[in-house]
Design a protein that fits this description.
This protein is of the alpha/beta class and 244 residues long. The protein contains ten helices and eight strands. It binds 2-phosphoglycolic acid.
Length: 244
């Protein structure tokens, strides 16, 4: 199975910059053996989809609404995202948990809505520096998994339904200090074990948090790590392509 590389562009690029980067990736990824998923903002996503990108990568959104239709001013539904070209959606990213105060109940609603609309889910979990210091990493992750995946069974979901789980220690995101690959692999194995019980299917687990050109290979070498969720490095074509 090819390893998966996800680009999370966050809110860091203009539409013009997003289109320019997508077109560079389109050319650069022709020879890649990886499965690449690019996650632009809501506005750029349909424009990239319409700009004729080939099979080199899939598109993912960075969030979705808790329902697929309703009086939810300002929200964007999974079904609309699918309609304009998204295949995946990132849910439960720590920036949304912290800044938008998203809790596990909300994330669970979004997971269910996304799967119902036929989007594949990239669920983010991970502990804070304080929780790590208190040796609560596994406890925190288990709570996040149980909350976000409540009533989610891939056996009962529509065909092709998928939940990828990204382990992103919060202290490693954007800090320049990635976790040691062996430690990440141990947590990934734990997530596979617990995720399988909840999903009735063995999930693929990715690592995210200060992935760079040097450490990417160390993570990708780990058996329990199926890929990477990349923030900063994904904003620049040359560096990103070097890990794809
Ligand atoms: P980073 O971001 O690679 O810049 O640490 C990862 C993420 O937030 O998904």
């Amino acid at each position: 199975m090819p390893k998966i590389i996800i680009a999370n562009w966050k809110m860091k690029l203009s539409v013009e910059e997003s289109l320019r980067l997508a077109s560079k990736l389109n050319v650069g990824l022709v020879k890649s053996h990886r499965q690449v998923i690019v996650c632009p903002d809501f506005v750029s996503l349909p424009l990239i989809a319409a700009s004729g990108f080939s099979d080199n990568f899939s598109l993912g959104a960075q969030d979705c609404a808790i329902k697929n239709n309703g009086a939810l001013t300002g929200e964007v539904s999974s079904s609309t995202l699918k309609e304009v070209g998204a295949t995946y959606v990132i849910l439960g990213h720590s920036e949304r948990r912290q800044l938008q105060k998203e809790d596990d109940v909300t994330i669970n609603e979004k997971v269910l809505a996304a799967l119902e609309a036929g989007l594949k889910v990239i669920l983010c979990v991970g502990e804070s520096a304080k929780e790590k210091a208190a040796k609560e990493t596994k406890k925190v992750i288990l709570k996040q998994l149980k909350g976000a995946l409540k009533n989610v069974s891939l056996k009962k979901s529509p065909k092709g339904a998928e939940v990828l789980i990204a382990y992103e220690p919060i202290w490693a995101i954007g800090s320049g200090e990635a976790m040691a690959a062996e430690g990440a692999a141990e947590i990934a194995a734990y997530i596979i074990k617990e995720g399988e019980k909840l999903l009735s299917k063995r999930p693929q687990v990715l690592y995210g948090g200060s992935v760079d050109v040097k450490n990417a290979a160390l993570f990708l070498k780990q058996k329990s790590i199926s890929g990477l969720l990349v923030g900063g490095l994904s904003l620049e074509a040359e560096g990103f392509l070097s890990i794809c």
